[in-house]
Write a structure and sequence with these properties.
The chain contains seven helices and nine strands. It has 286 residues and is of the alpha+beta class. The protein has two domains: 164 residues; 98 residues, Rieske Iron-sulfur Protein (3-layer Sandwich). The structure holds FE2/S2 (inorganic) cluster. The site of FE2/S2 (inorganic) cluster has 13 residues, from loops.
């Protein structure tokens, strides 16, 4: 079976690109004024060391699926209806959290990722509305209507999950850009000692990855040159307070430890051990 190429399909749905751009512009305006920045970073998941959205999105999917099964079972055992309602309600609350975390990640996307992300969000938001309507129908005694709306909602969630899967597995959205970058495991000479100076970066390939070299407080330091968030160059902006700054979305990393200091990145930067041997700077994976 051939996978469906979603990009041209989504691009042909005329309202998706301008809608995505308009919402993103509005959000970026809020962030530029300093509003929502802390909330966005929390929703990105830096505190967890992992994107929050995949974890949160499992909760409503599980709750809605379990509620659908209980709604089927309540025909034989009416005692199940309370639990079916409870799970529908819990799924709706969890769905709001999943949507907010997804919005925080989506806000940093461009091009096809932005458009597919918009389609993913629309499908899941429409599904969430169907589950809210299902709960309302059930509260009014319409169990058949509730079950039909729940089934429709699950179908929408499935379609949204397909698009979300495409974003991650085809476009590498939110995937650590250094996942396969290891660097040299044994000492490797990468520069002359005199080339590494305070206040500037030297970029060198080493062991299948890009490494930046600099001096900080007299010590030679080597770190990954590629931002784990989406691949931005960490050697473009000057070092500030011992931190590397990514120019693309503002992530910051400790030069010496690689620790993420500021999101949206959630994965620490690569760091390397350094030594000087016969006037050459050598590095190896820490
Ligand atoms: S690429 Fe997004 S913060 Fe670096």
């Amino acid at each position: 079976m051939t996978a469906v190429d979603l990009e041209p399909i989504v691009a042909r749905i005329r309202f998706i690109p301008p809608l995505g751009k308009a919402v993103q512009d509005w959000l970026q305006g809020q962030l530029r004024q300093g509003r929502l920045q802390g909330l966005k970073e929390a929703l990105n998941g830096r505190w967890l060391g992992h994107p929050l959205h995949p974890a949160l999105s499992d909760l409503p999917i599980g709750a809605f699926g379990a509620s659908a099964l209980l709604q089927l079972g309540e025909r034989a055992d009416p005692g199940l209806s309370g639990a079916a309602d409870l799970l529908l309600g819990a799924g709706c609350v969890a769905g709001v959290g999943a949507a907010a975390s997804g919005l925080a990640d989506w806000q940093d996307k461009y091009g096809a990722e932005l458009e597919l992300g918009t389609a993913h969000a629309l499908l899941n938001s429409a599904s969430l509305l169907l589950f809210v309507a299902a709960l309302g129908a059930r509260r009014r005694g319409g169990r058949g209507v509730g079950l039909a709306l729940t089934a429709l909602g699950l179908g929408g969630l499935g379609a949204g999950a397909y698009v979300g899967g495409d974003l991650v597995f085809r476009y590498g959205s939110q995937v650590n850009r250094n996942a396969f970058a290891e660097g040299p495991s044994k000492w490797r000479a990468v520069a002359d000692e005199g080339e590494v100076v305070e206040g500037s970066f030297l970029r060198r390939p080493a062991g299948g990855t890009e490494v930046l070299l600099t001096r900080f407080e007299g010590q030679i330091c080597a770190a990954g040159a590629v931002c784990s968030h989406a691949g931005g160059p960490l050697d473009e902006l000057p070092l500030e307070d011992g931190q590397l700054h990514c120019p693309w979305h503002g992530s910051r990393f400790e030069l010496r430890t690689g620790k993420v200091v500021h999101g949206p990145a959630t994965v620490d930067n690569l760091v390397f051990e350094t030594r000087v041997s016969a006037g050459r700077v050598e590095i190896r994976r820490r």
